[in-house]
From TrEMBL, chains A, B:
SUPFAM superfamilies: lambda repressor-like DNA-binding domains, Periplasmic binding protein-like I. Residues 1-28 are annotated as: Disordered. It comes from Streptomyces scopuliridis RB72. Residues 1-10 have a biased composition (Basic residues). Residues 11-20 have a biased composition (Low complexity). The keyword Metal-binding does not apply. Pfam families: LacI, Peripla_BP_3. This is Transcriptional regulator. One of its GO terms (molecular function) is transcription cis-regulatory region binding. InterPro entries: HTH_LacI (IPR000843), LacI/GalR-like_sensor (IPR046335), Lambda_DNA-bd_dom_sf (IPR010982), Peripla_BP_I (IPR028082). Residues 23-80 form the HTH lacI-type domain.
Length: 365, 365
DNA sequence: AGGAATCGTTAATGCGTATTAGTTATGCGC
DNA sequence: GCGCATAACTAATACGCATTAACGATTCCT
């Protein structure tokens, strides 16, 4: 005879008054007249260990239903040595006051893919405030509570990241990040996308195309230039340093005069890289307007990415879209693979060409 | 002598190659030369059981840090403790493809407040896709992994919610929801806000004001009407059924004629309730336009909420803003209190009056 | 000086479930 | 009728952590 149900282990926080204890497998077992293990086996429902008689199975199922049994996820996860949690860590707030600055598009994909794979997400509210985790050197160590973790933005401290990677903790970075040996990441395929844009322009009849880029060397910039040059080459067009202009105020500013010079010289199309400020694109638009050349009848313009929000109105810009949602999903897929101990897959996600209205055939000579 | 680390319990999924398992308290203990219990005591950090020497405490902390120890949430939870995780559950996708339909404004507040209190967030990717969780009767049971859970939207199945509440699991619903006995919730104080709007109109000199509402009885509608009537009463203005118009197409539609009837009868201001469709406000604007009365010179208009996004341009509408971000924060505060076993606090968050330009003094008689 | 009170730590136990190694029934062949 | 495989369960154990009773070592008191 065992004590009824009054289990009041001392020291245990007193259960909130009036709280009906949830039924456990052991209670289902008692009601069904079998052992707890049997209940577990039946409820696991695996077709594999089918060594349970139909009669017993039914008794257990009935008992479980009548008691309203629900498994305790904590216990389940503890016993299974996994918790079906994927972390999401962004150095800045994940939900900044301004949606524009948020990772929302990524999160859409992350949530979808995570849900599809049965994972829940842990948002580490790190960094932003020093709440309880403070900003110690082990600030990132809480992420280990998940089975693996996604990092957004390039602000994650390299040292800590390296540590996680070295420990074999599954980590995926959204955005190219290959200076960190062994870090898995997913990124947009700027090379191919840029190359395609050039290809489209060439197909329209353009023979001389110039890339306007800013004067820094982020991977995103380098990739685009690389793709641009490959595109020229593939189309049999003149490449070389003359096809690329690094604008740098004030010495090498993109002025209307300079633009005129190019068009007079036979250049019929311009391509600008996308950056977070949209600097190159802004400069290009301004120069075109000041030079009083019409787009797209006199010059064609294309942007290697999407225009900044404040320039988003007006006719659609020829260029490509970065599939952030798909990137988020790809990141989760990759992370799930790492968690499962598989090898990393293809990290590049292709961008989608956007025809737009700022490019057309070159003017007749 | 115990086996080194090769713990390969049969049946357990083999750890991914090369992956160092997360450190456990027992490993921290070994490194620090103490027992697992001591580690637990030290890491619990309770000032209460201060029966640990500073020297030992330091050894343990160092060991934990150097191993990157992080407690297993499932184990913690199982041992009837807390794990500093708050759940966020929305029946629809938390990050829908369209930001407009998302809970973003709430999440901003939720994240801020959670971070400030040292909680991380678990996003339960429920329902939306049938991924792994399917739609069983225990769909909500996963939330029990967290210390408590926030529910967004009124789609959370009442049965499951009731179950969680009955079991004493801390739950907070964002948005009024008092048909469910014992469910904690936070909501906007529509009564006070509506009352204030009426007060402002009265202060401007309006003596007859009519409320245009839709024909349903959601709490949000009832609250607004209640506040509206209280406002009239406080200002000593005529209330009663005549002051409220339930528009219901087609029998009782809000037509220009009807509007004219009111203005001819001395009504100088109209107030519409906000709904998700914005129906009442749309009808009111249309009627005013068709009746060719000018706003605000001839009639004053106010909206008990914010205009729908597609009507957001033009002059600002007199009314009030629902402080979604603050609501999110308030929800977290309440949830934290419940988790701590305290009693629920004030669930209402006040709205902010928005002066706008659609209301002014009544025309001279 | 002998016993009590105190301090610092550890051994032991439980949380609820999954898994596996038994342990009984039952049926079978010879 | 006696092993022996098979079926149907159950006992035992581990998961990682929190909690507490118990214990050895000091220090304190009278």
């Amino acid at each position: 005879m065992d004590e009824p149900r009054k289990r009041s282990r001392p020291g245990r926080a007193p259960a909130p008054a009036g709280r009906t204890a949830r039924p456990r497998q052991s209670e289902v077992a008692r009601l069904a007249g079998v052992s707890q293990a049997t209940v577990s086996l039946v409820l696991a429902g695996k077709k594999q260990g089918a060594t349970i008689s139909d009669e017993t199975r039914q008794k257990v199922l009935d008992a479980a239903r009548s008691l309203g049994y629900v498994p305790d996820p904590a216990a389940r996860r503890l016993a299974a040595a996994r918790n079906d949690l994927l972390g999401v860590f962004s150095f800045t707030a994940t939900f900044p006051t301004d949606v524009q600055h948020s990772y929302y598009p990524f999160l859409v994909g992350v949530e979808q893919e995570a849900a599809a794979r049965g994972y829940d997400l842990v948002l580490f509210t790190g960094s932003s405030t020093g709440g309880a985790g403070a900003a110690g050197p082990d600030a990132l160590s809480r992420v280990r509570l998940a089975d693996g973790c996604l990092f957004l933005g390039r602000h994650a401290p390299a040292g800590e990241l390296r540590r996680l990677v070295a420990d074999g903790f599954p980590v995926v970075h959204i955005g190219r990040r290959d200076e960190l040996e062994g870090l898995a990441w997913v990124g947009a395929d700027y090379v191919s996308a840029s190359r395609e844009v050039v290809g489209r322009l060439a197909a329209l009849g353009h023979r001389r195309i110039v890339l306007i880029r800013e004067d820094d060397d982020a991977p995103a910039s380098t990739d685009r230039e690389h793709g641009f040059l490959k595109g020229l080459e593939a189309a049999g067009l003149p490449g070389g340093p003359a096809a690329v202009f690094r604008s740098a105020a004030p010495e090498r500013e993109l002025t209307a005069e300079r633009l005129r010079g190019w068009t007079d010289d036979g250049v019929t199309a311009f391509v600008a890289e996308e950056t977070d400020t949209g600097g190159a694109w802004r400069a290009l638009r301004t120069a075109v307007r000041d030079a009083r050349v019409d787009c797209p009848s006199e010059v064609s313009l294309a942007l290697l990415g999407s225009p900044p929000p404040d320039l988003a109105d007006g006719p659609q810009v020829t260029g490509f879209d970065i599939p952030r949602t798909r990137l988020g999903a790809a990141a989760v897929r990759l992370l799930a693979a790492l968690v499962a101990g598989e090898e990393a897959a293809e990290p590049l996600v292709s961008c989608v060409f956007r025809a737009g209205a700022t490019a057309g055939p070159p003017p007749a000579p």
